[in-house]
Fold this sequence. Notes:
This protein has helices at 8-21, 27-34, 62-79, 105-113, and strands at 85-88, 126-129, 134-136, 152-162, 168-176, 192-196. It is an alpha+beta fold. This is DNA helicase.
Amino acid sequence: MRQRKQTDEDVKFRKALENMRYKDCTPADIAFLRTRISSSIPGRSCILDDEFRDVPIITALNIHKDAINTIGCQRFSTETSQKLTHFFSEDSIHCKSEYVPTLTDSIQSLLWNAPHSSSADNLPGKLSLCLGMPVMIRNNGATELCITKGQEATVYGWQTDKGSRGQLMLETLFISKLWKCWTILPGRATLVGPFPSQAARKACHLPVLC
Length: 210
């Protein structure tokens, strides 16, 4: 549990979410949730405020999340005058079949450009990053370093490698966040944590090739 304190509004919000889960919201829940609707009225929160610039967004479908992330990457790249660096996966077929006997260039291209939600566990075939870009950790990489699923961080740097098709691969991603339990690297004033790449087996849903 990372929350260290709570306000009366936190209690109301948690209760409203709990009741919402069981379709049992009370009039008090509805009244409170209406105060959280984005509005341009002075004194009310608005999604255009700077504090909501890079906050995580909960979506109904993963395909919606993919679109929001793609737009967000392009926006961050433009606003910071950086060029997106694209990292690609190294893929192989685990169970060959008559439908996909070999991993051809066309199939590999589909895997790299498919939405993240087209694969099990939303594992991306291509990852586009910039320095300083806000990210969310998706795995419990190192709980002793507070590198846990759901944590927010920013991209600090990376180490790369070349794949079998000459593609740029992400070997290790370095992310930064001001957590006291992280170790300060020699000569660095920022708390940085490594996030190495991992091999994973996944099933993918791709369009039919004609």
